[in-house]
Amino acid sequence: MFAAKITLKTFGMVSILGALPVQGSPLTETETNFVRQRAGCFDVTYRFFDPAVSQSDMIASAKEYIDIEWVSDTHAVLQHVSIGPDPDNPEGAADEVAIHWREEWSRENSALWDYEGQLKWAKGQRQPKENELIYSVFQIDGSLRAQYPASISLQEGAMVFKGEAMAPLPRRETKAARPEDKKYDVMKRFMTIVAQPETGYEELLLATKLKAGISIGQEVGSTRFDRIADGECQKAAELWKEQKGFWQQVREGWNKVYAKNSAVKLKGYRQIGTLMTLAETAKTDSKALEQIDPIIQSSIVVTP
Fold first, then answer.
1. Whether pLDDT at 101 is above 60
2. Is residue 5 domain-resident?
3. Which of 5, 22, 241, 252 has fewest C-beta within 10 Å?
């Protein structure tokens, strides 16, 4: 299930976000175990509630295959592949397999991307803290969503990560019918991840919804990952094996964007439909890969 760990010199390396130097010592045994606990095959349960706007509530479940790739001893990439109904296609299969979101864990970055609202992110320089990890979350199309800097602690036999980040609306909120006074475009997220050895983990969310910097509501939620037999995710593992090269090139395309710019604004919410179609085309037509960078460039506005 797990890829072999690759040990590389960390000096001068560039992380997956490009121009974010990976510094400091390799991940500790506890940190490495924490990241590895996030890989495998899981039953996933989602529960999100907005006390003021019931249309935003969500209870759902699916299976999730999560592949791990050690880029270096200070940096891991985990790709999620979902097995379940497509929320955008109610008539689709109940066990549809699709590329999902991506996460990365890296050591003591000297730069972080902050979400400012209106689908705009800005890169800021910072002094890394000792023993700090950066939890980076990427949207399905490969673009950045949020970065959480924090450390991992041991609490009553569990490994715990607590972080805070600004982020855009979750996908479910872009379609929710919200009253005008409850509309917002920035979510301040307080995330707690609790990992239990071998059994799975849970992500607990307390979020504040901001409009022009003012709180207009809150959301509480949890995403629970219960580990199941690897065979339950065989179809997802096969899809990732087929398409891994394509999505790695998508990742590299975004790397170049984040490496050369100090601020990036998306024109729209995402390009996932276009990229998923292109991934299928690329199975039989290698020239399809040449369209990745143009698609990415067409989806962004570079701002000062």
1. yes
2. no
3. 241
Return the pLDDT at 144.
95
Residues 6+ apart with CB under 8 A from 91: none
Structure tokens at 211: 């409009």
What's the pLDDT at 224?
97
Q: How far apart are CA 49 and CA 219, in angstroms?
A: 6
Tens digits of residue pLDDT in 121-140: 999 988 888 889 999 999 99
245 exposure class (CB count in 10 Å sphere: 0-12, 13-18, 19+): exposed
Q: What is the pTM of this model?
A: 0.89
Across the range 30-36, mean pLDDT stands at 94
- The two tokens of residue 59 are 């209870």
Q: Between the CA atoms of 254, 61, 184 and 253, what dihedral angle is there, to the nearest 10 degrees?
A: 0
Sheet strands side by side (includes 263-266):
111-117, 120-125, 263-266, 300-302
14 lies in a domain? no
Structure tokens at 80: 């999620």
Contact residues for 56 (Cβ-Cβ < 8 A; gap 6+): 48, 49, 50, 172, 173, 176, 178, 219
Number of structural domains found in the chain: 1
Would 18 be classed as within a structural domain? no
Short-list 255, 243, 240, CA closest to 293: 255
**Is 244 domain-assigned?**
yes
Please state, in angstroms and rounded to a whole number, the distance separating the CA atoms of residues 10 and 184: 40
Give the tokens for residue 7. 């040990």
Q: Cβ–Cβ contacts within 10 Å for residue 28, how many? A: 12
What does the pLDDT read at residue 5? 29
Expressed as residue numbers, the domain containing 117 is 29-302
Alpha-carbon span 173 to 256, nearest angstrom:
29
Determine the Cα–Cα distance for residues 190 and 159; give it in Å rounded to an integer: 17
